[in-house]
From TrEMBL:
Gene3D superfamilies: 3.40.50.880, Carbamoyl-phosphate synthase small subunit, N-terminal domain (3.50.30.20)
GO BP term, pick one: L-arginine biosynthetic process
Active site: 271 (nucleophile), 353, 355
Organism: Thermogemmatispora aurantia
GO molecular function: ATP binding; carbamoyl-phosphate synthase (glutamine-hydrolyzing) activity; glutaminase activity
Cross-referenced InterPro entries: Anth_synth/Amidotransfase (IPR050472), CarbamoylP_synth_ssu (IPR006274), CarbamoylP_synth_ssu_N (IPR002474), CarbP_synth_ssu_N_sf (IPR036480), Class_I_gatase-like (IPR029062), CPSase_GATase1 (IPR035686), GATASE (IPR017926)
Binding site for L-glutamine: 73, 243, 245, 272, 275, 313, 315-316
Coiled coil location: none
Gene that specifies this protein: carA
Protein name as catalogued: Carbamoyl phosphate synthase small chain
Subunit structure: Composed of two chains; the small (or glutamine) chain promotes the hydrolysis of glutamine to ammonia, which is used by the large (or ammonia) chain to synthesize carbamoyl phosphate. Tetramer of heterodimers (alpha,beta)4.
Domain of life where this protein originates: Bacteria
Length: 382
């Protein structure tokens, strides 16, 4: 027995030596993740060979790296995946992505797997990162990094290759929505209800979820004036999408929502859309210590014993609800607000992602609930 244990220890040591020889043989470049408080994690580059700065956040989802990486809400962020094996099922075709490209600024993993195995995989994660020019680092101890961020809060950081250096960059100071929103109005689908989707960096599954319900969808840029006589079209409701950065930097969308509130146009806000609706209606948002990024966030439906397991990706939250709104959902872990609903008017919003991708479909009914109310309001208007 004791002999076995000794043998195994020896084997592990030998494998580790093999691995480091492999890294040297493949010419993998060494790199560092440098945090703004001076903490350094050494690692090996497996993505695009460049240095990059951003905000370091962690996601505890066990699957879904292609969806998370293409979610525009992660714009400006260096994403650390806590699930240790990343790359093992490769990268699917772009129709399965949540945006047109990779939106994260950089990727941090514990173990990068370069031998993907999945029926839908068309390339390795390494090739994808290199094609799309996104740096990535394998640092092994993502647990220590995550515990550090949980203790001290989300912080700025940079992936630095070899002896290169660059300044820290805080993405929350900029309006990132302007760089990820669509540029032109796009008309999709057919149906008797017309929904205007304000694209602040919408996940594709919000578009798919609406089209699946047979609506005529008009996707508009974040700063599009929906109420300008000359440029606009008839619509029955508005969906305000998810998106990157601090909601307070997205003033033009807030102004559009304010007009929609005055005119009682039915509205559904999702994630950033929830925060924007709250700000437009007179509420307030704040930056959370380390945010919610996973696919198992429990959300309690207010005044009930119902709990939904939700997908989330946000670093800001609604602190003060606007007048006229009640809490709709509350986070079962930390009690933060996860949604709001107006007492009388057709205004709803959720902090989580009812479109999931990746994650559970528990709250897919939010789209049905919203569209049913849009129909009621349309019929009442005649
Ligand atoms: N997924 C989102 O829409 C994120 C909203 C916002 N950027 C936040 O981090 O809180």
């Amino acid at each position: 027995m004791q002999q076995n244990m000794v043998d195994r220890t020896f084997l592990v040591a030998e494998n580790l030596a093999d691995l480091s020889r492999f890294a040297l043989d493949t010419g993998a470049r060494r790199g560092k993740l440098v945090l703004e408080d001076g903490t350094i994690f050494e690692g090996t580059s497996f993505g695009y060979e460049a240095s990059i700065a951003g905000e370091v956040v962690f996601c505890t989802g066990m699957v879904g790296y292609p969806e998370a990486m293409t979610d525009a809400s992660y714009g400006g962020q260096i994403l650390a995946m806590t699930y240790p094996l990343i790359g093992n099922y490769g990268v699917p075709q772009s129709e399965h992505w949540e945006g047109e490209r990779i939106h994260i600024a950089g990727l941090i993993v514990s173990d990068y797997i370069d031998t993907p195995s999945h029926a839908q995989s068309v390339m390795s994660l390494r090739s994808w990162l290199q094609q799309q020019q996104v740096p990535a680092l394998e640092i092994k101890d993502t647990r220590l990094l995550t515990r550090h961020i949980r203790t001290h809060g989300t912080m700025l950081g940079k992936i630095v290759l070899d002896d290169e250096d660059l300044p820290f960059y805080d993405p929350n100071l900029d309006n990132l929505v302007a760089s990820v929103s669509c540029r032109q109005v796009e008309r999709l689908g057919e149906g008797d209800l017309t929904i205007a989707l304000i694209d602040c960096g919408t996940k594709h599954n919000i578009v798919r979820s609406l089209l699946r319900r047979n609506v005529r969808l008009v996707r508009v840029p974040w700063d599009y004036n929906l109420f300008d006589q000359a440029s606009t079209f008839e619509f029955d409701g508005i969906v305000i999408s998810n998106g990157p950065g601090d909601p307070k930097t997205v003033q033009k969308t807030i102004q559009t929502i304010q007009i929609a509130l005055e005119r009682a146009v039915p509205m559904l806000g999702i994630c950033l859309g929830h925060q924007l609706l709250a700000l437009a209606a007179g509420g307030d948002t704040y930056k959370m210590k380390f945010g919610h990024r996973s696919q198992n966030q429990p959300c309690l439906l207010n005044d009930s014993k119902r709990c939904f397991i939700t997908t989330q990706n946000h670093g800001f939250a609604v602190g003060t609800l606007p007048p006229g709104f009640a809490p709709w959902f509350i986070n079962g872990n930390d009690g933060t607000n996860e949604g709001m609903i107006h007492h009388e008017l057709p205004f709803f919003s959720v902090q989580f992602h009812p479109e999931a991708r990746p994650g559970p479909m528990d709250t897919d009914w939010i789209f049905d609930h919203f569209l049913a109310r849009v129909r009621i309001e349309k019929e009442a208007r005649g």
